[in-house]
Amino acid sequence: MRQSVRGRAGLYGAVAAGGFRRYATYGTATAAGVFTNTVFGFILAYTYIALWDERPGLGGYDQSEALTFMWVSQALLAAGALIGGGFQEEFQERVRTGDIAVDLYRPADLQLWWLAGDLGRAAFQLLGRGVVPLVIGGLAFQLALPTAPLRWLLFLVSVFLGLVVSFALRYLLGLAAFWLMDGAGINMMATVVSIFFSGMLLPLTVFPGGFGEFVRVLPWAAMLQVPVDVLLGGGGGGARTAGWLGFQAAWAVVLLGLGRLLQAAATRKVVVQGG
User: For residue 268, what are the contacts with CB-CB under 8 A and spacing of at least 6?
Assistant: First the structure.
C-alpha cells in the first residue's frame, strides 16, 4: 500500500515536472510575457498612483500597499491563467477530437493528472514571468513588501491554494466540452468573469456595500485577492490569515469535488456514446 502511494506520488510528480519543462522550452514567449507584464504593470502603477492620490486609503490600502497589490497581481497573472494560457483549451480540444479516450485509459486519475501538469506549468510561470516584473516594480516604486520569512511562507501556501482553485474552475470548463463540444464561448465568458472578480484590475475591497461583500466570497477572490492580502498581512493577525487560508481551502475542496462529479457524468457519456 505504501509503495503504491509512493509510486502514484512519483507519477504525478513526474507529470508536474513535465509540465514545468514543457513551458520552459518557450523562451521567446516567456520573454515576451515578462515584457508585457512589466509594461502593463507600469501603466497600472501610474493609474493607481493617480487614483490613490485622489482617494487615500481607498479599499483599506495606502498607496504603497496598493502598488504592492498591483505588482504582485502581475506576478500571479500567468501562473493563475487569469486571462488564458492554462490547460483547459487543450483539454477541450482532446474532448472534441476524441483523444480524451487515451487519457481515460491511463492508469492514473484524470483530474489529478491534469492538476499535476497544470501545477508544473504554474510553477514555471510564477518563476519565469512573475519574479522579474515584481523585482522591476520593487525597484521603480515604493512597495510594502514584508520582510518576515513567515509572511512569505504563508503567501506561498496561499498562492498554492489559489492555483488549485484556479485549476478546479478551469477543469469544470474543460469538462463542459463533453456537452458543448466547442469551448470558445464559455472560455471567453470565464476570462471576463475572472478579470473582474479576481481583483486583477482593482482590489475587491474597493467595491462598496453588499456587492463588495458578495464578490469577496466568490471563488475568484481566492485566486488573487486573498494571496495578496495574505502577503500584506492586514489587521487581525494570525487568526485573519488562517481565515483567508481556510476560505481558499474550502473553495478548493468544493470545486474539486464538483469536478469529480462532473467527470463521472462525462465518463458515463463517453461510455454511452461508445467513445
Answer: none
Tens of pLDDT, residue by residue over 42-85, are 999 999 999 999 999 999 999 999 999 999 999 999 999 998 87
Q: Write down the H helix ranges in the chain.
A: 2-24, 27-54, 63-77, 88-97, 100-105, 110-125, 131-140, 149-180, 184-197, 209-215, 225-232, 237-273
Question: Which of 164, 169, 141 is CA-nearest to residue 69?
Answer: 141
The predicted-structure confidence for 146-187, as pLDDT tens digits, reads as follows: 999 999 999 999 999 999 999 999 999 999 988 887 778 888
Cβ atoms within 10 Å of 195's Cβ, excluding its own: 15
Output the pTM of the full model: 0.93
The Cβ-side half-sphere exposure at 196, using a 13 Å CA radius, reads 11
57's torsion region: left (phi>0), alpha (psi -120 to 50) or beta? Answer: left
For residue 270, what pLDDT band results from cuts at 50, 70 and 90?
A: low
Find out whether 16 and 116 touch, Cβ atoms under 8 Å.
yes
Burial track 93-112 (b if 16+ CB lie within 10 A, e otherwise): ebbeeeebeeeeeeeeebbe
Residues 204, 58: Cα–Cα separation, whole Å: 11
Question: Of 189, 224, 259, 226, which Cα lies nearest the Cα of 78?
Answer: 224
Residue 182: how many CB atoms within 10 A of its CB? 10
Q: How far apart are CA 103 and CA 250, in angstroms?
A: 28
- Residue 182: all three cell numbers together: 466547442
Centroid of chain to Cα 273: 34
The grid cell for 195 is: 478579470
